[in-house]
Design a protein that fits this description.
single chain, about 775 residues, alpha/beta, Spore Coat Polysaccharide Biosynthesis Protein SpsA, Chain A, Rossmann fold, nine-stranded mixed β-sheet, seven-stranded parallel β-sheet, 21 strands, about 45% helix
């Protein structure tokens, strides 16, 4: 290789608009060889490379460079005596004028595209002074662990592969940063012309790029991170000893703090801001290197099993099978045995008790709640676990139906919570297109932040398949035909229509089977009353109806195995799993083409006519009597089921996660800071006022009417009347004597009782899980 010496008084003859790569070197031969080799390999041939040799005592680097079998010429500028990093760089700035300077520390290794990426970032705006590459060891530009410099890359990851991934996944956000970071920085000549080079006050090194950057900022220029460029930086290889505070560094930091009293706060803001472009850019790079991480809220995985528990288990397993995300699951203290047995088989899934996640646990990229939020306290819990919130909103049944709540206030509270949750979510997942359109109809979420990911029906890890167990009270069903209507007593389950259908089958077709109504009773919005009313008016049909309470999985299995068909007259479902459960048992399912059902199952399988019992009976009778008709129906549902796999769910969720991470930071991140501050302020005022003060002004049971409150406030504000007012009140208190103390105790007791009542209301209004079968 040709190495050409550049005299101290000699320039390079570069033109304005050109760029020169400058590698300052003093010792550190082993690092220098890797640095220069990577620069030669990955820098366009027309770009000059200048080695700024600060009078290195060891000639090994120069000798090695001369022996390289490369046709390119290296420019070598050697100082007569050691100048230190500042003086060495200033000499290089002078010799390369009027070209831009790309400053590369000799302990840095670059990769493909590094030069082009830095150049694009440096010229993304006319006000840019510097552009700095991301690196493993670079303070606020450190990746994959933000603000945490590391000496080496994660195991198994080479610098070339890391750089390729960062480049491929970069958002090219070009975030503004408070200072250039000196490991690998493009410095535009216009900035050097405007503010000069490095200040000799920082010789021989430390703090010079910070001072230069602040002078640029004061002159109206800016600094950016080249978020599509990653370089390896060994860190402290030439200027210090790892783990030690260099006294010169401490002294120079004091100069920085004296000159730029805002700088420390500016850096802290860059480090801590979760909603900034820098955090998003660094996050994209980190995920490119390490992969996406997600916390799944699995706190519903208690011993009680319903469809939601099975769905959550399948979601966790599907995500694990993708291999595209690191999965952490928050589980309840009373984790069910069924869930524990499945989670133990998922080697790459980290299971953490939810209580351990409230004490400063590491946040993941995504926190996913795979079912509706029903308690406002969940939002605070979830906000601490991930940078983006994803919620699966299964349906808007409760949002639409005030009869499912004990009061209008409770219903409105639930609606507010639903709206707030969707507003805070980066992406809202719906399990059907119908459910998504229903939310869009009320402007609950922008369409751009919605995704439809249908449920899977090929249950694998969650197919516990208990042995069938005959339910108590079902002995009469052993040998006869019967329809099975499985579901809660919520009105939208439309169990009354099942009764009417049974009568139509008896009256119009002489079908003599029974009807089983099986499912738990609900507190509000139940159809039990109207069912009893109908049965009272049709005593001839009552003998053909069997009502059973909530069923275990084993009891459900027995009913599926012994029924003639499943009747599923629901008026509203977010997905509709029952037809697929029925076909798994080899039994036809009678449903209508309403809500999401016509979307997930072809419409020609929908045999019920909404909501005409006679016409429906005419359409279903063949399926009940003709095995061939039943088999044709089953095959239609089976074909639909083949498309609804949990593996497809896993892929769909990963795509939704990636879409969420590409968005600017949502309100979810601000919740951690703003809401906690608001909560603290609220409780401060509440405790400061105390139960007595609250009782005076509480809207529901205030002791002082508003006009009296205004009068007291007015008198208390005026010095002339304040003393007389307080003296009079104290006199009345002494007259009241012991009664006043008793009143105080009563007020405190009332306050405690109201707090307990509020907690009870939350438990009733926001149960952990609404039964859905």
């Amino acid at each position: 290789m040709s190495v050409r010496d550049v005299a101290e008084e000699q320039g390079l003859g570069a033109a304005r608009g050109d760029a020169v790569v400058v590698i300052p070197v003093y010792g550190g031969h082993e690092h220098f060889t890797r640095c220069l080799a990577s620069v030669l390999q990955h820098t366009p041939p027309a770009i000059p490379i200048l080695v700024a040799d600060d009078a290195s005592p060891d000639p090994a680097s120069r000798t090695w460079a001369e022996q390289l079998p490369d046709e390119r010429q290296i420019l070598w500028l050697r100082q007569r005596k050691n100048q230190g990093f500042v003086g060495n760089c200033n000499a290089a700035f002078e010799h390369t004028a009027p070209a831009d300077v790309v400053l590369v520390n000799s302990d840095v290794v670059v990769s493909e595209g590094w030069f082009e990426g830095l150049r694009d970032a440096a010229y993304c705006d006319s006000t840019i002074a510097t552009a700095t590459a991301l690196t493993n060891h670079g303070s606020i530009l450190s990746v994959p662990y933000r603000n945490t410099p590391i000496k080496a890359l994660p195991q198994g990851l080479t610098v070339d592969e890391a750089a390729r991934r960062v480049r491929a996944h970069a958002g090219r956000i070009r975030p503004r940063i408070p200072t250039a970071v000196g490991h690998c920085t493009w410095i535009r000549r216009s900035a050097l012309d405007l503010v000069g080079g490095f200040d000799p006050s920082f010789a021989p090194a430390y703090g010079e790029e910070v001072d230069f950057s602040q002078r640029c900022l004061a002159a109206g220029l800016q600094h950016v991170a080249a978020d599509d460029v990653f370089v390896l930086h060994h860190g402290h290889a030439t200027l210090g000893i790892e783990g030690e505070r260099n006294p010169m560094q401490v002294a120079h930091e004091e100069i920085i703090n004296a000159r730029y009293r805002y700088f420390e706060q500016a850096v802290e803001q860059s480090e801590e801001a979760d909603t900034s472009p820098l955090s998003r850019a660094v996050g994209l790079a980190a995920r490119a290197m390490l992969g996406l991480s997600v916390t799944v809220d699995g706190r519903c995985l208690t011993p009680h099993i319903t469809g939601t528990q099975l769905q959550v288990i399948e979601v966790i397993a599907a995500l694990a099978r993708t291999g595209a995300v690191q999965v952490r699951v928050a589980v309840p203290p009373d984790l069910g045995d069924y869930a524990q047995s499945v989670l133990q088989t998922l080697d790459d899934v980290v299971v953490v008790p939810s209580g351990e996640l409230t004490n400063g646990a590491r946040r993941t990229d995504i926190v996913h709640r795979p079912f509706q939020v029903t308690d406002p306290r969940d939002l605070t819990f979830l906000s601490a676990l991930g940078d983006r919130l994803i919620v699966t909103n299964q349906d808007l049944i409760a949002y639409r139906n005030p009869s499912y709540f004990r009061s209008g206030a409770s219903w409105l509270a639930y609606r507010r919570l639903t709206a707030e949750t969707m507003a805070l979510s980066s992406v809202v997942i719906f399990i059907s297109e119908h459910a998504r359109r229903d939310a869009l109809a009320d402007d609950l979420v922008p369409e751009s932040r919605t995704r439809v990911v249908h449920n899977g029906v090929d249950h694998g890890v969650a197919s516990f398949s208990p042995d069938a167990l005959e339910p108590a009270g079902a002995a009469a069903l052993r040998n006869g035909e019967f329809l099975l209507c499985l579901g809660t007593t919520f009105r939208h389950k439309n169990r009354l229509f099942a009764l009417r259908l049974l009568q139509a089958l008896h009256d119009r077709h002489g079908w003599e089977g029974a009807l089983v109504l099986a499912g738990p009773e609900v507190a509000y919005g139940s159809s039990t009353g109207i069912e009893a009313e109908w049965l009272g008016l049709h005593p001839d049909m009552a003998q053909h109806v069997v009502t059973l309470p909530a069923m275990t999985e084993a009891e459900k299995r027995w009913l599926y195995e012994h029924c003639t068909a499943v009747v599923y007259p629901t008026t509203y479902e977010g997905f509709g799993l029952v037809p697929f459960e029925a076909v798994d048992a080899g039994k036809p399912c009678l449903f209508a083409d309403v809500a999401s059902l016509g979307e997930v199952v072809p419409a020609d399988a929908a045999l019920l006519v909404p909501w005409d019992a006679d016409e429906s009976a005419d359409r279903v009778i063949d399926v009940l009597r003709d095995p061939r008709a039943a088999e044709r129906h089953l095959e239609i549902v089976r074909r639909a089921a083949r498309e609804l796999t949990w593996d497809a769910v896993g892929q769909g969720l990963v795509a939704a996660y990636e879409a969420a991470m590409a968005l600017p930071a949502s309100e979810m991140l601000r919740l951690r800071h703003l809401d906690l501050a608001e909560d603290a302020r609220y409780w401060h005022f509440r405790h400061a006022i105390g139960p007595t003060g609250l009782s005076l002004v509480e809207p529901d049971q205030q002791l002082l009417p508003k006009d009296v409150q205004r009068a007291v406030a007015s008198l208390a504000r005026r010095p002339a009347t304040r003393g007389a007012l307080f003296a009079g009140l104290r006199g009345l208190q002494r007259v009241a004597g012991k009664q006043g103390s008793e009143n105080e105790r009563e007020l405190a007791a009332d306050e405690a009782a109201r707090t307990d009542e509020l907690d009870e209301d939350l438990e009733r209004l926001f149960p952990e899980e609404l039964p859905r079968y």
